[in-house]
Amino acid sequence: MKRPKPTAATPDPTRLPSRTALFRHHVISEVEARVLGGEALVDAVLAIAAEAHPLEKGRMRTVSARTLYRWRALWTSGGLVLLEPAARRRTTTSIALPPPLVDFLRVEKGRDPEASVPELLRRAALSGLIEDALSVDRVTAWRACRRMALPLGGKQSKRAADARRFAFPHRMMMVFADGKYFRAGARRTRRIALFFIDDATRRVLGVVVGPSGESSALFLRGLYEVVRRFGLMDVVFLDRGPGFIADDTRRVLVALGKHLVLGRARYPQGHGKIERFNQTAWDDVLRGFDGAVEIDDACGALELRLGHYIEEQYNLRPHESLGGVCPRARWDADERALVWPESDAALREAFVLPESRKVSGDHIVKCSEIAYEVPRGLRLTWIVVRRNVLDGTVSISHEGKLVRLHPVDLAANATAGRARGEIDPEPERTPPVTAAAMAFLRDLGPVVTSDGGCPDPIDPIDPIDPEDDDHGCP
Questions:
Q1: Given 3.60.15.10, 1.10.10.10, 3.30.420.10, 3.30.1360.20, which CATH number is that of 174-333?
Q2: What is the pTM of this model?
Q3: What distances in angstroms separate CA 27 from CA 49, 83, 178, 252, 263, one per listed residue?
């Protein structure tokens, strides 16, 4: 069964957002963060257009100011759906350029790999393939060369990065999140503490502790607790750790309607503040956990200790960057109203990610590389799987009820009896009289009937009447 394709007018809400759409939303978030900080829109767009933004696998990309305005308008009018790339026919050469010109570019690049695209167009004009070098868009020709994997040399000029420091004026306009590794307990177990810090007031809003390694599940659990306690923030500033650039993190922030800003190496706008706090937390409390026999290395116990530290010590301590005011006092003095979710149920719903999955022939569906059993009757059909990133549960809507799925137990299935489906009862019927039965009755049939009479001769039309036992002699 093929999955139906959604139309542009009615997009599929269960379709996973593409990496392109998530990247565009990230770039827009960079612009919105500057606008919220008091910068003019035109200045914010020009500043972001002058920077390179991270893609997957360490690649970087720049975006023009015109594209930024277009993406921002699409996001404002329709959200993430309109940021999806438009479907178009793919080609390995070019659709816009004539084939003779494409062949000319391939041949000339093979002869002269260092020739620029404008130079190739001038040569094509002198060869009579085009009217003049300006009649063909050189960007189109450059893209055709890139699709054909032709050498495109030339050193990229380094753009001057905007290294100005910033500070948002009000609470919950920007929240930092970053992890700090440490060791705890007599066994020196490696742990990571993920702190959430408000930029304007420097108040630590929360902390979560997990095993070694940043993960999106740990960050999203901490984000849920912070939002449930303090409300929604406008922008979240993260580094490019594996748990922060995960698609789950981006999708949840999009569902909350908030912006995500990813920092980069040697980025003083955000790393200076968070690294300074990490140093303070290490000096105050984290270094005392290493090797201490009285410290329980369980994540919950460490969260309790760190939560007491930030609420009863750090947030009440005078802060140098705040002019000697403690973070909690600065927070309480801020007149900006906190923005709360509609309800706790609506907040938790933002952490439930719908995904389309196809059920296998043996009623199995895979989600996050885990095989789950689904109710019978859904084999080879497309279903919407609801994955809760807070508790890791997976559920589906079946017959009007929300059914939680469980991982398949292969050992139990190997010893359990096979389920039998309901079989419709067969209709009552009279067994036919075959030729063999007719021959047997003719040759070896009874010589008298049940009442002692003589049987009738075999009628070829109606040889035997089971209901007629009263056969008299002829």
A1: 3.30.420.10
A2: 0.62
A3: 9, 11, 20, 17, 12
Which residue pairs from 128-137 have beta carbons closer than 8 angstroms and sit at least 24 positions apart in sequence?
A: 129/98, 129/100, 129/101, 129/104, 130/101, 136/97, 136/101, 137/96
End-to-end CA distance of the chain: 68
Collapsed DSSP state (helix, strand, coil) of residue 252: helix
CA-nearest of 210, 195, 221 to 298 is 210
Q: Take residue 385 and report the two structure tokens written for it.
A: 């799987």
Are 177 and 236 a contacting pair, CB within 8 Å? yes
DSSP letter, residue 418: P
Q: Which two tokens stand for residue 238?
A: 């993260």
Going by C-alpha positions, the residue among 30, 93, 40 that lies closest to residue 63 is: 30
Distance CA(77)–CA(422), nearest Å, equals 52
Residues 6+ apart with CB under 8 A from 85: 18, 20, 21
* Domain boundaries along the sequence of the chain: 19-83, 99-147, 174-333, 351-415, 430-474
Distance separating alpha carbons of residues 314 and 205, to the nearest angstrom: 11
Which bin fits 399, alpha (ψ -120 to 50), beta or left (φ > 0)?
left
Chunk the chain into consecutive blocks of 10 residues (it has 474) and report each block's average pLDDT, rounded to whole numbers.
Answer: 44 69 90 89 92 81 92 90 78 82 88 86 88 86 87 57 64 91 93 94 94 81 95 87 72 89 60 83 92 92 95 92 92 94 92 89 85 86 89 86 86 66 64 78 75 63 53 47
33: amino acid identity, one letter:
A
Closest CA to 118 of 105, 106, 128: 105
DSSP letter string, 64-102: -HHHHHHHHHHHHHHGGGGGSPPP----SS-SSS-HHHH
